[in-house]
Specification:
It contains seven helices and 16 strands. The protein is an alpha+beta fold and about 375 residues long. The protein folds into two domains: about 150 residues, no CATH class; about 180 residues, no CATH class. α2 runs antiparallel to α5.
Length: about 375
C-alpha cells in the first residue's frame, strides 16, 4: 500500500494541487494565473514539505486542504502587503476579491478537490470531523476564516534567498518521512560529506550536464546538487532529472534554494527521497537532464589558440564566457577574464605554452557540484 508520504509528495499530487490552487486564484482574482510565477512555485515546493512535517493530519485530504489554505492565505497577504506599501512588482496589485453566491458557480473547494482526486485515480478520503459534524470548506468560508487570522509578515517570505558569498558548501536536510499515526522527528546524524565537481571530469569530449567522474571514496547517499541556473530547457521547471548509469539511479531533484555569486544564480537541488547508492566501481557517468527530456549540449571544454600579440586567447566558441568569470587552462592554470574583445578573451595572466601544446579552457563558474554522504 502506498504510504501517506508517497501519495502527498507524488508528482501527480503536487501538480494537481498547484493546478487547483491556480484555478481558485483565477476565479477570485480576475483571471490572474500563478503558473508562470516562478517565485510562487518555488515557495510552494518548499512549503509543501514543511506542511507535511509540521501537520498533525493523518490523511491525504486534510493535508492537501492545509496546503491549499496556507498558499491562498500567503497569496492574499502578499498582494495586500504590496498594495498597502505601493510597491511596484511584476505580480499585479489585486483588490480584495468579491465572491458572489451563484448556484451555478462551482467555487466549493471540496467539490473541485474531489474531482482532482478522481482524475488521479486515487480513492477519495474522508476529512476529519469536528464536533461530530462533517466540515464543508468552501472558498468563501476559507477567505472569511483567513480574515479573522492575524496578518503574516509575508514581506520577509518573498525576499529571494541570496547569500553574498559561499563560506562552505551548505547541506540541506531532506524532509522527514513519518508513519501515518503521528509525525516523527528524525535525529540529525553526523555525516562525512564527499564533494565532486564537473570540473574534475575525466573526459575532455564532454559537457557539464553529461560527464564521467572518478570517485574512490565510499558514498551512500546523494545529499544535494549545486548548479548554476542557465537559459536552457533544464531550468524551465524547478525539477531536474538526475541519472547515474552505473548505479541504475534515475530520480528527480527538486529546487530548494537559490543564491547569487559573481555573474550567476545558483540553485540547490535535493532528492525527494533518500536512495541508497550501491557503488561498485570508482567510475561514474553523471547525467543532469531536463524534466522534459534529454537536451543536446555542446562540449564546454573549449580548444583555443593564443593571439598573435600573445596577450589574449581566442576560443573556438566564446558564448559561455563573461567578463569576471574564472577559467582553467589545461586543468592546471587558473585566471580571470578581465575583458572580452569580439572573439578574444583578455586575461589577468596567460601562461607560457610550448609550440606544439594544445590549449583547452573551461569556465569554472558554470560547473556543478555534487554532495554525497
Amino acid at each position: 500500500m502506498t504510504s501517506l508520504y508517497d501519495q502527498y509528495h507524488s508528482e501527480k499530487n503536487i501538480d494537481h494541487i498547484y493546478n487547483l490552487l491556480d484555478d481558485l486564484i483565477q476565479k477570485n482574482n480576475g483571471n490572474i494565473s500563478i503558473k508562470a510565477d516562478i517565485e510562487f512555485k518555488n515557495y510552494y515546493l518548499k512549503q509543501l514539505r514543511e506542511i507535511f512535517i509540521k501537520s498533525d493530519s493523518d490523511n491525504l485530504t486534510d493535508l492537501n486542504r492545509e496546503l491549499l489554505k496556507h498558499h491562498i492565505l500567503y497569496y492574499k497577504n502578499k498582494n495586500e502587503n504590496i498594495k498597502s506599501q505601493n510597491i511596484v512588482r511584476n505580480t499585479p496589485i489585486l483588490n480584495k476579491p468579491t465572491i458572489e453566491k451563484n448556484p451555478d458557480d462551482n467555487t466549493d473547494v471540496k467539490v473541485q478537490f474531489d474531482e482532482y482526486l478522481k482524475m488521479r485515480e486515487l480513492p477519495e478520503m474522508t476529512p476529519r470531523k469536528i464536533n461530530d459534524v462533517k466540515e464543508e470548506l468552501s472558498f468563501n468560508d476559507m477567505m472569511q476564516d483567513m480574515n479573522t487570522q492575524p496578518p503574516q509578515n509575508t514581506e520577509e517570505k518573498i525576499k529571494p534567498n541570496i547569500l553574498p558569498k559561499i563560506l562552505e558548501i551548505p547541506v540541506i536536510d531532506k524532509p522527514v518521512d513519518k508513519p501515518v499515526d503521528k509525525p516523527v522527528d528524525k535525529p540529525k546524524e553526523n555525516k562525512n560529506y564527499v564533494t565532486l565537481t564537473s570540473a574534475n571530469r575525466t573526459d575532455i569530449m564532454s559537457n557539464r550536464y553529461n560527464y564521467n567522474i572518478k570517485c574512490d571514496k565510499d558514498i551512500k547517499q546523494l545529499e544535494q546538487l549545486i548548479i548554476p541556473i542557465e537559459n536552457t530547457l533544464h531550468f524551465t521547471s524547478p525539477i531536474l532529472k538526475f541519472k547515474i548509469v552505473e548505479l541504475n539511479i534515475d530520480i528527480n531533484l527538486y529546487l530548494r534554494d537559490t543564491y547569487k555569486l559573481n555573474n550567476y544564480t545558483y540553485g540547490v537541488y535535493i532528492p525527494e527521497n533518500e536512495i541508497e547508492l550501491n557503488k561498485i566501481n570508482d567510475n561514474m557517468n553523471i547525467q543532469i537532464c531536463s524534466f522534459y527530456g534529454n537536451i543536446e549540449i555542446e562540449n564546454d571544454i573549449i580548444i583555443c589558440e593564443v593571439s598573435e600579440n600573445k596577450e589574449t586567447l581566442k576560443p573556438k566558441n566564446i558564448v559561455d564566457f563573461k567578463k569576471g568569470d574564472f577559467i582553467s587552462i589545461n586543468s592546471k592554470h587558473f585566471t580571470k577574464i578581465i575583458d572580452i574583445l569580439e572573439d578574444e578573451l583578455v586575461l589577468e595572466n596567460i601562461p607560457t605554452f610550448t609550440e606544439d601544446e594544445s590549449i583547452y579552457i573551461m569556465n569554472m563558474n558554470l560547473q556543478n557540484t555534487l554532495v554525497f554522504s
